[in-house]
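Morning run. Coffee first, then this:
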Amino acid sequence: MKPTVEMLRSHPDAGDFDAELLSACIEECFECASICSTCGDACLAEHDPELADCVRLTVECSEVCSTTGKVLSMMGGGDDEILISQLEACVEACHAAGQEAGRHADAHAHCGHCSRACRRCVEACEELLADLD
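And here it is:
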């Protein structure tokens, strides 16, 4: 069993959460945050003004994903509305960054990796949102 799942199951306020689903979402959020940070840095290193929006969106996405992973790890203190709002913000940030990075994927491999990570994070967030309904 994954350590994150074990930790979530041991939480006194675990409630009705699907620990596997929650764990997968937390991991995707942190993975996406890391990949978006790296992509933004790689875009800067390209010295290509065409990548300015990609830098901005991937850096923003990294921050939103990191925060989402942290909020989910705290299980929202029992307030599903906070979790839902944060997950929706993460989906929006990942959509924007993933689309922009995807526009540059043919020319820059790091943008392709970023676009795919954003897609995986969107899927994980949407699965958890569906489970919260």
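DSSP finds five helices and no strands in the chain. Good start to the day.
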